[in-house]
Predict the structure of Nuclear transport factor 2 family protein.
Amino acid sequence: MDDNQPRTSAPDTLPEVITRYLKAHRAHDTATAITAFTDQATVIDDGNTYAGTEVIEAWLNRSATEFTYTIHLTNAQQTDATRYIATHHLEGNFPGGTIDLRYQFTLRDGLIERLVIEP
């Protein structure tokens, strides 16, 4: 395999910081989830950009209570030395009821610097 090609990974081989964030997000544990981000982190979700840990924490709190849903990790890829994609299947009471979302992580110094969530 060419070193520049994405590598499919088992979900349990994702970096610890990503699995910590995903577990905390699933459990609606905002205090733990926010520890996975750099101070200057950016999250892009549903067309909105959230910059900095205070703003990201508010987004996490809102997203934890806005809808009820289940989330299941279905695939994981490492696209380069600092970038990972974790694909999730969600089912719940949000518009449409089901969706597959790609959580695209960029890491810096062992923390999440950028997270883009999109179909």
Notes: The longest helix spans residues 53-66.
